[in-house]
């Protein structure tokens, strides 16, 4: 871990070390395959080793860090194989979430989709990939909330944590992915608000699949094929 810079957490933030480390991994501040030690993490964030140990265990359960006996702990690598596995699952699950959201009668939550879309639009116009990503993730979470399917949400929550790094990386490196995501997300939101379950499913399915297929070569070039 690069210890050329560090910052200390307040007592309140130290209780949320998992979220702090998760954000650092998602936004690639902790790089894929970067080695982690309890000592370095504790020093960097100004906490004791006990919460660090607990946080690393939680991140390991979520697939964001790997641990191997006598070898250590490191940030989970990114690779084409990992990307393929995640996105094949996302295609199906995100489409189901959109379909069930469309069937929902919760008009108040559906109206919040337009606030998300407005935030995405402003971030795109400002060229702010990180802010666009933040609004986009909020849109996904809102669809899950509208769908109101506990089992589906649990499955997506586990998957999404591993997918977030790829989503942010793609938005950061390629403006065309931002444009594609915005335009097609607007259509998905409209279908959900209209209560068109079949169209919502098809649009969300096609959006995730299109991003996956059109960016596979870039992921391969950046991170390699992955484990055999």
Identify the notable features of this structure and list them briefly.
single chain; disordered N terminus; mainly alpha; 228 residues
Can you describe what's shown?
The protein is mainly alpha-helical and about 230 residues long. Helices cover about 75% and strands about 5% of the residues. The protein contains 10 helices and 3 strands. It has helices at about 10-15, 15-25, 40-45, 50-60, 80-105, 105-125, 130-145, 150-175, 175-195, 195-225; strands at about 35, 65-70, 70-75. It has a 3-stranded antiparallel beta sheet with strand order 1-3-2. A hairpin with a 3-residue loop joins strand 2 and strand 3. The two termini are about 25 Å apart.
Furnish the topology, listing elements before pairings.
Blueprint: H1 11-14, H2 17-26, E1 35-36, H3 38-45, H4 49-61, E2 65-68, E3 72-75, H5 80-103, H6 107-126, H7 129-147, H8 150-173, H9 175-194, H10 197-223
Antiparallel strand pairs: 1-3, 2-3
Helix pairs in contact: 2-4, 3-4, 5-7, 5-8, 5-9, 5-10, 6-7, 6-9, 7-8, 8-9, 9-10
Termini separation comes to 27 Å
Largest sheet data: 3 strands, antiparallel
**Helical proportion, percent range:** over 70%
Helices and strands: which structural class?
mainly alpha
- Following the backbone from N to C, one meets helices and strands in this order, namely HHEHHEEHHHHHH
Rounded to the nearest angstrom, the radius of gyration is 19 Å
- Report the strand count: 3
